[in-house]
Amino acid sequence: MLFYKLYKDEQGRKVGFLQGNEACLEAALIAGLKFFAGYPITPSSEIAAVAAEKLPMYGGRFIQMEDELSSMAAIVGASMTGKKTMTATSGPGFSLKQENLGYACLNEVPCVIVNVQRGGPSTGLPTQVSQGDVMQAKWGSHGDHPIIALSPSSVQEVVELTIQAFNFAEQYRNPVVLLMDETVAHMREKIVFPLAEETEIINRHHSEVDPQKYKPFDTSFGDIPPFENFGSEYRYFITGLIHDEYGYPTTKPLEVKNLLDRIHRKINDHTQQLSLFEQYQTEDAETLIISYGSPVRSCLGAMEAGRKKGMKIGVLQLKTIWPFNPEIFTKLPSKIKNIYVVELNMGQLILEIERVIKRKVNIQGINKYDGLFISDQEILKYLEQQQGKKS
Amino acid sequence: MKNFYEIRLSGSGGQGLITMGMIMGEAAALFDHKYVVQTQSYGPEARGGACKAELIISNSRVNNPKPITVDILLTLSQPAYDKYIPDVKPGGIVIIDSSLVKYKKGKGVYPLPITTFAEKDIGLKVTANVVALGIICSLTKVVSYNALERALLNRIPPGTENINKKALSFGKSLKFKDNI
């Protein structure tokens, strides 16, 4: 049973008071989701519950698999047959999905993996918030592999970034991780779903080539090879081994290097197109708060309250976590003297930020990892203490 | 009415607090056209553990989604009362299920035997959360009755409309005073 109802506004847009998890699945349907395989886990279970209820009405299929390994395998296989696919999990399940996620990265299979982050490590804090899987999203699967990861801070952004996740997956022929957190997943807000004509939906590239001549990893079309449906008249080989353009295993050094270079280049060369971020009052800011996911809201609250006290605070919100875009940081206004990175972990993305900022500026993390959400008051208090130390 | 309300509905799992939060939130957001964020927290167990639903209802965009101190506190269990009573802002309103909670009298404190009302007057114990919704509506005006009733009827299982409407209007029609 569904715990929300959708209404229509005057323009005919669907409107409702939804949880992040519910909005995620509704947005996935708009993006064209046709297959969901999963193994329910708090705090992501509502995504699977809504998928089970709704997908059959949209001509799709839902399957609850025996575990996370098989559910990841199922969405990779289903995607190869031409469908848009998704799974949803939380930290412990995300760990189990890593091997098949790597398989999808190597074989360039589009799919969306939602990870609603909860406290870890291990089974951790099942019902409590965390952002501890930021580096896991990038490096959780072994070997050098490209990944795209997006992180929403409100339920409306869950809608926006879920659609974006499917579009990026199909456009770049790569898995996309939607890094949610417990707060945004369970938070309810008023949501307006875009109309079809207001939504750009990207579908995967198909080739016009003769099925006999098709190569699943053909480089003659550029860095993103057209992807034909497995099981159709296009017959090809696919493996987790490093492969040539036909998909057959290879150990030839040049072919190995070319493949790894290409699958990274197809993402890295498009970092600017993939990089989604928002800046709030950064023009005159002397202090910049950088964050992503639900803590962004508290950063905005701290900014508004701090500005009332005369503190020149700005906020930089990263919606795209991976690929990491250094250009945002090298172009920051020169007035900025202090940078605070707010994360619900012990300091993960701050390492990337410290790596790319070359000029002399004070960079500090504001980290919370006790299972509780961080408030605007906590952030402002920290900023005031730091200011007090300096004056 | 104030422009900004922070509300905590607290008790134990199974008392329908999160459902209450969803109904209030939908009423205020979709039908009263306010800015609303509703969050919740609960333990790993399905029933019995400490549970709370929180709402921020505002005339402008809501940043921080989780209240620290609250204008309105509803407590339906002793542990919730003990834990959250210090978080009430000066001038705040506390609604207590006096059939379940031992409490301290004071200004803005409204003890009502909510669960007993649901059992005796409505005839169904599980409507206590709906009775409480009616009480919050009439006491605080944070959400309009029409909006609340509309949201309620959209959320409940078919066939339970009458008893839920009865519970809501019963809660609203109660006469009460604080500082008893």
Major sheet characteristics of chain B: 6 strands, mixed
Radius of gyration of chain A: 21 Å
Number of domains of chain A: 2
The most extensive contact between chains is: A-B, 27 and 24 residues
Radius of gyration of chain B: 15 Å
Helix amount of chain A? 25-40%
Note the main sheet of chain A: 8 strands, mixed
Order of helices and strands of chain A: EEHEHEHEHEEHEHEHEHHEEHEEHEHEH
Give the CATH superfamily of chain B: Pyruvate-ferredoxin oxidoreductase, PFOR, domain III
Report mean pLDDT of chain A, rounded to a whole number.
97
Distance between the termini of chain B: 24 Å
Please name the CATH topology of chain B: Pyruvate-ferredoxin Oxidoreductase, domain 3
Shape label of chain A:
globular
Quickly count the domains of chain B: 1
Q: Quote the beta fraction of chain B.
A: 25-35%
What would the principal axes of the Cα set say about the shape of chain B?
globular
Number of H/I helices of chain B: 6
In terms of per-residue confidence, which ranges of chain B show pLDDT below 50 for 5 or more consecutive residues?
A: none
CATH class of the largest domain in chain A: Alpha Beta
Uncertain regions spanning at least 5 consecutive residues of chain A: none
Oligomer: heterodimer
